[in-house]
Amino acid sequence: MKPHTAIEKQIVALSESLAPITPEIHTWAEKTIFLKWGVLSRGKFHCLDCGHACKPESLKQSAKFTVCSDCKRKLKMHVCNQLHFKEIEYSAVVTCLSDFKIVRIVCSTKQMKKCCLPTYSHTEVMQHWINPKGEVRTMSISTNVFSHAYDAWQYYSPLEIRPKDFQNSPKYRINPYRVYPRLKVLNVLKRNGFKRGFYELLPQVLLSSLLKDTCTETFLKSGQVSWLRYYLESGDQHIKRNWQAVKICLKNNYAVSDFEIWEDYIELLRWFKKDITSAMLVCPVDLNLEHDRLVEKKQQLQRKKHLKKMRLEIQQAQEVYAKEKKQFFGLCFSEAGITISVLENVGEFMTEGDSLRHCVFTNEYFKKKDSLLFSARIDNKPVETIEVSLSKMEIAQCRGMKNNKSSHHKIIMELMQKNLYQIPSRMKKQKREKA
Question: What CATH number has the domain bearing residue 414?
Answer without folding.
Answer: 3.40.630.30
